[in-house]
Specification:
It is a single chain. With 272 residues, the protein is an alpha+beta fold. Helix content is 42%, strand content 17%. It has a six-stranded antiparallel β-sheet. Strand 2 and strand 3 form a beta hairpin. It is elongated.
Length: 272
């Protein structure tokens, strides 16, 4: 699998402010307030002048990488206050400390902080900032397009947190559902609907999951214990466990009270 990168990395809000006046320039958000400006052919036309302009308000790094099947090379340089301050540094050998790899070294000069020692690849700023989440210019342009409506980095960050929390909740719910699939329940769906007066739907499914979870937490439940637990659960959910499902009056096994006309037809008028 290939990986190609030719971009400018720097403060997201500052890069996007610059890109707003340049046709074809877009900025994708990275972690730690960084942004990535992919370099199209048009932007590479006068690269030194562009990097000098971009670095007037703060440091930027020009980073390049080209890999195929685990083999490749990377190059990085840092610009500050209109001039190149460090680099370009190039390597195709990655046996040394990760901190010395060109892109990691440039990111450190931008102020990117490493993850905690317990994190995987905690010395690899390339991974920490999120440069591995795109594989080519099109990926980064797609990421920039997805963030085009955010007001600033903070706005994007809040949205990402909300999305991540939603994904984590959904994953946790799927894991619970998968874990409970093979657990027996002392009442089936129809019995639960009758007991709690529920229509067929998600609430009935939630009740079954509750019984299965009780089985895991407390062991097998008798029918009486399950019914009592379901009534308590329904009360907590704001349901009315007293209401019964209406009887099916069309069933041939259910007798309904005879009307006055039917009594008269049978020769038995109303009693006094």
């Amino acid at each position: 699998m290939s990986y190609r990168l030719d971009a400018v990395v720097g403060d997201f809000d500052r890069l996007r402010s610059w890109a707003g006046g340049v046709p074809g320039a877009v900025v994708a958000p990275l972690r730690q307030r960084m942004g990535l400006l992919p370099l199209s052919a048009a932007l590479r036309g006068d690269l030194p002048d562009m990097l000098g302009d971009l670095s007037q308000g703060g440091p930027v790094a020009h980073v390049q990488a080209d890999f195929w099947g685990g083999e490749g090379d990377q190059t990085a340089a840092l610009w500050r206050a209109g001039v190149r301050e460090w680099g370009p540094v190039h390597t195709s050998e990655f046996s040394g400390p990760r901190e010395d790899w060109p892109i990691n070294a440039a990111l450190a000069r931008l102020g990117v902080a490493p993850a905690g020692p317990g994190a995987a690849d905690h010395r690899d700023l390339f991974v920490e900032v999120g440069l591995g989440e795109g594989r080519d210019e099109e990926d980064w342009r797609r990421a920039a397009l997805q963030a085009c409506d955010v007001a600033d980095y903070d706005d994007w960050h809040v949205g990402e947190q909300v999305k991540r929390e939603h994904e984590e909740r959904a994953a946790a719910e799927r894991a619970v559902s998968e874990r409970l699939q093979g657990i027996p329940a002392p009442l089936d769906g129809r019995e639960i609907m009758t007991l709690l007066g529920l229509p067929q739907g998600r609430t009935t499914g939630a009740a079954i999951r509750h019984l299965r979870q009780l089985h895991l937490d407390r062991g097998p439940q008798s029918r009486e214990e399950a019914e009592a637990a379901l009534r308590a659960w329904a009360a907590e959910q704001g349901l009315n466990p007293v209401t019964a499902v209406p009887a099916d009056t069309t069933s041939p096994h259910v007798r309904r009270p005879a009307s006055a006309d039917e009594n008269l037809a049978r020769g038995s008028g109303p009693t006094e």
